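Lab meeting, item 3. Inverse folding demo.
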């Protein structure tokens, strides 16, 4: 019976693809297109972590429970840091008529000019010749003309994005199907995050659907993502000490478009699910599950007026409760700081979570969560991608930001922004980890005011030069525990100055 099903499927595919070949009047012409960009960046900063480089202090669901370089006594605390770096991408599209296309995208990286080594991400070493070429994407795109509705499939190492600046973005192996059923577009997704043993159900899969429709000047959509994590963190070796499984849902609604003369972007999302400890635990009293339930909303309204653009952004992300959550959110870990007077086991994570192995994009503020037009978002007091869930760049925070874009000449534009940031974590702080005299975490409400300025200069049509500066007038919620008695310390106000020279083609 199985052989019959397989042979039937093969026969169907042969006939289907044969219909395309014979239905063509003449053989399509193969066309190649190339595109990409390269950039050189400089960073000069103080007390601002660098997500992804190993020095971030914000992977926890609230303030870090252990010493990091950016806490009192750390090598980077209240110290100025400076470096240069490179990045480039090169994309090739092999287009065969209207039905088929193959995409190959490569990335070239340096994390520092003058670095030692020739491996991945070490393009900036002195004598060059580094093995820094990375395959970013590798997939095929083809139409399905024999299906009653217009359908396009992408398969391979594909770009993954469901509201990338808000919920989920990365590149990885999977299949995406887009179906146009007027006025709606239905996007179906399947991705493989981790493949364990071929003979066991120990892999991690992601399933998703995104449906949107254009209604006059607005596009409205709804989506759902399901993460079935048979190995957590991703990947993790199952043993007598680690055997955790996760079942997580992420869902939301969004609206993009124009309301009168204004441009509107609105997002609402929530996460819901649990992590389970599947070890054979002798102590039955230990909690087996940690439940997740967080949410976030973001509204961005911009109004053009003559040559100017004025904007208002509002964000709210639910925070954790340090009396119910450990920093990692993993089952059978102690809440709060993991030390007395905290003794309960983690049972609930209320902070809006970042999905495992996610690279979701930058936010709205330079220092807090990395503005997209400023150093590609490679700065900010938010968590980096890791094999487990952590708070997202919006989790545990709320803020309001006013902005203005002022074109001084045809080649020169100045962007100004000011925002107030508050803390939504309870019985603790989102960024800082200051303690009370009894050893419990302090609960403060003010992260502070941030002031940003970005100069965007169009040197040529394809060559831009950006100079940006962000400064956080830090509030009490950014104070850190010194590790001595109950003494806390306020860091010097975090700031970052950066430049970016970028050529695109």
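The presenter then showed the designed sequence:
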């Amino acid at each position: 019976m199985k052989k019959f099903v397989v042979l039937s499927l093969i026969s169907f595919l042969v006939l289907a693809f044969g219909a395309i070949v014979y239905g063509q009047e003449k053989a399509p012409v193969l066309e190649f297109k190339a595109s990409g960009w390269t950039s050189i960046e400089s960073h000069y900063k103080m007390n601002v972590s660098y997500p992804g480089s190993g020095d971030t202090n914000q992977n926890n669901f609230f303030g870090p429970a252990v010493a990091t370089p950016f806490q009192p006594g750390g090598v980077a605390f209240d110290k100025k840091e400076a470096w240069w770096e490179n990045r480039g991408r090169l994309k090739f599209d092999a287009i065969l008529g209207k039905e088929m296309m193959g995409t190959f995208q490569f990335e070239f990286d340096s994390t520092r000019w003058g670095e030692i080594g020739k491996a991945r991400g070490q393009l900036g070493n002195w004598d060059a010749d580094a093995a820094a070429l990375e395959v970013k994407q590798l997939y095929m795109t083809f139409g399905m003309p024999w299906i009653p509705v217009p359908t396009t499939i992408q398969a391979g190492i594909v770009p993954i994005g469901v509201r990338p600046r808000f919920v989920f973005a990365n590149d990885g192996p999977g299949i995406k199907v887009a179906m146009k059923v007027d006025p709606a577009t239905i996007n179906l997704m399947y991705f493989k995050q981790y493949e364990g043993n071929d003979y066991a159900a120990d892999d991690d899969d992601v399933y998703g659907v995104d449906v949107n429709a254009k209604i006059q000047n607005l596009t409205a959509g709804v989506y759902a993502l399901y993460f079935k994590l048979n190995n957590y963190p991703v990947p993790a070796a199952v043993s007598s000490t680690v055997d955790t499984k996760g079942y997580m849902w992420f869902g939301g609604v969004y609206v993009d478009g124009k309301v009168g003369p204004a441009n509107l972007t609105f997002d609402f999302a929530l996460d819901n699910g649990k992590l389970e400890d599947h070890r054979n635990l002798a102590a039955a009293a230990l909690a087996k599950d940690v439940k997740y339930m967080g949410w976030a909303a973001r509204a961005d309204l911009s109004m053009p007026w003559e040559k100017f653009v004025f904007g208002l952004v509002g964000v709210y992300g639910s925070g954790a409760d340090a009396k119910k959550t450990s920093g990692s959110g993993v089952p059978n870990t102690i809440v709060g700081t993991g030390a007395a007077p905290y003794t309960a086991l983690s049972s609930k994570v209320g902070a809006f979570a970042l999905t495992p192995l996610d690279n979701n994009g930058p936010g709205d503020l330079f220092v807090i969560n990395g503005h997209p037009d400023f150093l590609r978002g490679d700065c900010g007091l938010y968590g980096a991608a890791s094999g487990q869930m952590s708070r997202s760049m919006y989790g545990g925070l709320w803020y309001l930001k006013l902005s203005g874009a002022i074109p001084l000449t045809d080649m020169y534009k100045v962007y100004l922004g000011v925002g107030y940031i508050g803390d939504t974590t309870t019985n603790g702080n989102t960024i800082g980890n200051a303690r009370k005299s009894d050893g419990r975490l302090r609960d403060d409400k003010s992260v502070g005011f941030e002031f940003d300025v970005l100069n965007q200069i169009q040197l040529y049509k394809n060559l831009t030069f950006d100079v940006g500066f962000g400064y956080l007038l830090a509030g009490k919620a950014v104070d850190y525990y010194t590790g001595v008695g109950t003494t806390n310390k306020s860091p010097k106000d975090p700031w970052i100055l950066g430049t970016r020279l970028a050529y695109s083609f």
